[in-house]
């Protein structure tokens, strides 16, 4: 059976686990394939980005409304939900959250994973591997489980087993995305410009100066979002010459060509201007004050609620691993796209 440790919330170990990408987030396209029972509340609630809530006076025709997945009582076996991850990824750990489920939580859980296409899952012939063995859950609690080692395999689906029945509010599957362009590289196919910052291509927002309203990780999500809540917004600054910044580790080293800065839904709170710097580093977070940062785009103004496109002044023969977007003086961005050609063993792919 795979080894794992349960972590206490609000510890450095927990912070290290939760700094990974949530592969089970609805924001990246994760969805429920099937569930054995959803009598009280739908399994898709587990994938919501926002924390679970409790509304005391809210009921449905089947009973108390709950913000999570809740199955009916008296199951003689157990319930399962099969989930397709937004992107294939290697799993580092989980948060099985039973918030607001007090007398009706799932007493135990296990999690399996598989690599499969849709037809294989639907036919029931997928080969499942246990990644979290059966373990106890408490009511109204976050349960952080860190695997002893990240999985060697990048998985496409997980199966949550709920023993014997009850409620799970949220499920977070923390890990690292396995970019699809790795498959393209094996085929020796020369690609066009790729958004190297995109979460689906392995990009990761590793640091930001301020996340007062919303996190920097939103900048590299798919699509253009639905409102200000799924962008990055900093608090208002009151200090002269203030700026805010985000560092994005690219999914692969690349020769950088273009950048897109999207202020969609930011109408009265977009930044006045921005700059772009880049560097090459072997560490995940090289730090905002690193002397190796090179300016590849100087100050350019931004406007409200639109996509802005710029050519970068990056050297054509130098591959970079990180970009730093600096906004002046503060405000909100919806998405950042960094287009370039991958550098693989010195070649452009």
From TrEMBL:
Cross-referenced InterPro entries: Allantoicase, Allantoicase_dom, Galactose-bd-like_sf
Domain Allantoicase: 29-177, 202-342
One Pfam entry name: Allantoicase
An example Gene Ontology molecular-function term: allantoicase activity
Keyword annotations of the record: Hydrolase, Purine metabolism
GO BP terms, alphabetized: allantoin catabolic process; purine nucleobase metabolic process
Xref: NCBIfam families: allantoicase
Similarity section: Belongs to the allantoicase family.
UniProt name for this protein: Allantoicase
Gene source species: Mycoemilia scoparia
Origin organism lineage: Eukaryota, Fungi, Fungi incertae sedis, Zoopagomycota, Kickxellomycotina
Gene it is expressed from: DAL2_1
């Amino acid at each position: 059976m795979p080894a794992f440790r349960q972590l206490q919330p609000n510890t450095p170990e927990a912070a290290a686990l939760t700094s990974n990408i949530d592969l089970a987030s609805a924001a990246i396209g994760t969805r429920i394939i099937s569930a054995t029972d959803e009598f009280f509340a739908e399994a898709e609630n587990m994938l919501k980005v926002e924390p679970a809530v409790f509304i005391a006076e809210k009921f449905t025709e089947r009973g108390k409304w709950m913000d999570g997945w809740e199955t009916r009582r008296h199951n003689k076996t157990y319930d399962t939900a099969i989930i397709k991850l937004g992107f294939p990824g290697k799993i580092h750990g989980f948060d099985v959250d039973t918030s607001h489920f007090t007398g009706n939580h799932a007493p135990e859980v296990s999690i399996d994973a598989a690599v499969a296409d849709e037809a294989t899952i639907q036919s029931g012939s997928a080969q499942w591997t246990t990644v979290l063995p059966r373990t106890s859950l408490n009511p109204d609690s976050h349960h952080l489980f860190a695997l002893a080692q990240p999985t060697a395999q990048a998985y496409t689906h997980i199966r949550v087993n709920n023993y014997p029945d009850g409620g799970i509010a949220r499920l977070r599957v923390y890990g690292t995305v396995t970019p699809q362009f790795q498959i393209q590289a094996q085929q020796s196919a020369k690609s066009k410009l790729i958004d190297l910052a995109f979460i689906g291509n392995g990009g990761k927002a590793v640091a930001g100066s301020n996340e007062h309203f919303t996190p920097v990780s939103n900048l590299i999500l798919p699509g253009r979002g639905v409102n200000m809540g799924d962008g990055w917004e900093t608090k208002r600054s009151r200090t002269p010459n203030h700026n805010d910044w985000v560092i994005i580790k690219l999914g692969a080293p690349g020769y950088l060509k273009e950048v897109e800065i999207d202020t969609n839904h930011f109408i009265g709170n977009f930044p006045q201007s921005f700059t772009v710097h880049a560097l090459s580093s072997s560490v995940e977070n090289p730090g905002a004050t690193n002397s190796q940062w090179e300016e590849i785009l100087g100050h350019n103004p931004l406007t409200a609620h639109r996509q802005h496109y710029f050519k970068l002044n990056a050297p054509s023969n130098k591959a970079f691993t990180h970009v730093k977007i600096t906004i002046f003086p503060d405000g909100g961005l919806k998405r950042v796209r960094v287009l370039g050609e991958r550098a693989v063993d010195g070649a452009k792919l």
